[in-house]
Amino acid sequence: MSIIELVVPVIGESITEVTLSSWIKENGSYVELDEIICEFESDKATVEVPAEKAGKLIWVAQEGDDISIGQLFAKIDTSIEAPSVDTTPKTVEDSSTKKEIATEQEVKKPSKSNVSGHPSPTAQKLMKENGLTASDITATGKDGRITQKDVQKAIANKSKGSTKEQKVVAKETGTVSSKTSSSFSREKRIEKMSRMRRTIASRLVSAKNTTAMLTTFNEVDLTNVMAMRKNYQERFVERYGTKLGFMSLFSKACAKVLMEMPGVNAQMGEDGKSIIYHDYVDISIAISTPTGLVVPPVKNVESLNYAEIELAIKELAKKARDGSLTLQEMQGGTFTITNGGVFGSMMSTPIINEPQSAILGMHTIQQRPMAIDGEVKIRPMMYIALSYDHRIIDGSSSVTFLVKVKNLLEDPVSMLLDL
């Protein structure tokens, strides 16, 4: 018997745990090389996992299980050969007759799948972003399921179709275009910016032009945070119905420090000669959507517990991606947090979200060698950045703010005890 072990692959630099959302292939079934066998869901994305070898699939984890990156979730017995599809009676027939009978049996075989024509979570997201429906796609997944590759192929075909239409229009209007190789393209297309994209662009330019923006950096050792999440995640989910993520921990740490340092939580008055201070912390959370970046605030973070913060962020993110955020839900905010680490960013200088005076940038978590008590140890490290308006916040205040946030995250117990 030849057994290979399948472990959870790296999905994103800041993702340390995933949930096995669904098995595509049954336990004990035969799988081909690169055939999709299951789907993993994280706080940020859903990914399909292919088989690394052909053979018999053996489940180790069950649907709904939370699994750490690198942890075993299945095995494949590569000594098992593909089952024979020839079910014809043992009679003397030539090969062509056997093929005809096998084909006829396959055609007559009833299909009782209830997933036929239904997309996987990843495929559904791609379909929505590209305006595709099930009728636009040829499903090749198990039992007629629409896979991510099916959608990507449909997108490519749609793009080719649009190019052909443009060429026909150019020919009818008398537009002259040079002939190019099929392997290269010199064509261009102009698309009008969405209103959201134009608003984002206007605000970012305004922030760059009207604020005295500066960025300072620090780094955080997330060893204790990750250990706490690992130790209490199961009980947290059982009680609150949501996971304990990094965003709630960072939000709570920032809120605690902002209450101690109201200057970082302040904003410039409209007259440019006054400063508005807040006795509360409304943290705007940067959320990426198909149409652009939105920053709806979670209000009174200083008074919320971790579960309440997580549920609030989850609800805002869902509404943002569904396009159902109201104007009231988009307004306000005294401070912003953006997490570029989910896209692999190692370091950045985030732009202030006006009229706020500061924004914290989170980045990817990387295992790096660190000097700890005279010894070199591998630790999960994250660079954090604070962009701030120097008209309101001094350099010493910005550095102090980051150091306080760093200390709270490196010793999360002190944050829980309000020390």
Number of helices: 10
Instruction: Decide which structural class fits the backbone.
Output: alpha+beta
Work out the radius of gyration: 27 Å
Integer count of domains: 3
Return the string of H and E elements. EEEEEEEEHHHHEHHEEEEEEHHEEEEHH
Give the rounded overall mean pLDDT.
81
Task: Describe the sheet with the most strands.
Answer: 7 strands, mixed
Which residues sit in consecutive blocks of at least 5 with pLDDT less than 50?
Answer: 101-114, 176-180
CATH class of the largest domain: Alpha Beta
Helix content: 25-40%
**Beta-strand content bin:** 15-25%
Q: What is the CATH H-level superfamily of the largest domain?
A: Chloramphenicol acetyltransferase-like domain
Terminal residue distance: 57 Å
Shape: globular
* Architecture per CATH nomenclature, i.e. the level-2 architecture of the largest domain: 2-Layer Sandwich
- As for the CATH topology of the largest domain, it is Chloramphenicol Acetyltransferase
For the secondary structure, the number of strands is 19
Description of the molecule:
There is one protein chain. Strands 9, 12, 15, 16, 17, 18 and 19 form a seven-stranded mixed β-sheet that branches. 33% of the residues lie in helices and 23% in strands. The chain is of the alpha+beta class and 419 residues long. Helix 2 runs parallel beside helix 3 and helix 6 (246-260) packs across helix 9 (395-410). The protein is built from ten helices and 19 strands. It folds into three domains: 1-81, OB fold (Dihydrolipoamide Acetyltransferase, E2P), CATH 2.40.50; 113-176, Dihydrolipoamide Transferase, CATH 4.10.320; 195-416, Chloramphenicol acetyltransferase-like domain (Chloramphenicol Acetyltransferase). Residues 101-114 and 176-180 have low confidence and may be disordered. Strand 18 (366-372) and strand 19 form a beta hairpin. The protein has helices spanning 95-108, 121-130, 148-172, 195-210, 223-240, 246-260, 306-322, 327-330, 395-410, 412-416; strands at residues 3-7, 17-23, 30-31, 36-41, 46-50, 55-59, 66-68, 72-77, 213-221, 267-268, 275-276, 283-285, 287-289, 292-294, 297-298, 335-339, 358-362, 366-372, 375-389.
